[in-house]
Amino acid sequence: MAEIKSTLDLVLERTRHLSLSEEEKALARAQEWEAKVKGHLLALKEGRLRAEELPGLLTQAGDQAEDFKAALRKALVETLDLTGDNLPLLAGLASLIGPDIKGLLAEIETLLADHKAASRTLTVRAREKALKDLADLGLSGSALKPKIERDQGYVEALARLKQAYADRLAEIKERLLA
Predict the structure, then answer these.
(1) How far apart are CA 140 and CA 62, in angstroms?
(2) Integer Cα distance of 79 and 69 in angstroms
């Protein structure tokens, strides 16, 4: 009587001679690390993982700890931006790399605070200008809320401001990755 084989048995039988090349294996490992790093990064940003726990993750990685550390460092640095919550990311970098980068992290914190203050100042000035322009037209009152987002001058100034700070942040990020 003939043996009935499952689909899995048939596939395994026909592909038993196939194997991955070294390049394909390296690519698969890199994708695996990327997925793990993204998961840890999300957990860090959401508060499910504390920055102090990152070195412990490195010990769990065993002989691949250096690759994992490099991938995690790169992901943390690349995720930094001007408007997001960067405190968990900065704490993660400090915990992962140590005191060697305190100066760069302080530079980033200062840059982010300066950007926030400059953006706020620009917004307040644009709002005051819009209110003054409306008052010149005879419109005033506490319920009046100008839509400064429609002011092309404000939008352009805000974009220039953001670009200037983004360029400075990119330069610091490059130094962090070096």
Answers:
(1) 67
(2) 15
Q: 54-112: per-residue pLDDT in tens?
A: 988 888 878 888 888 888 999 999 999 999 899 999 999 999 888 888 999 999 999 99
- Give, for 82, the enclosing helix (H) or strand (E): none
For the chain, the distance separating the N- and C-terminal CA atoms, rounded to the nearest angstrom, is 67
Judge whether 134 and 140 are in contact, CB under 8 Å: yes
Distances (CA, A) of 83 to 1, 71, 95: 70, 23, 22
Give the count of beta carbons closer than 10 Å to the beta carbon of residue 119: 16
Closest of 156, 66, 75, 172 to residue 114, by C-alpha = 172
Answer yes or no: are the C-beta atoms of 108 and 80 closer than 8 Å: yes
Task: Give residue for tokens 């968990």.
Answer: 88
Q: What is the pTM of this model?
A: 0.77
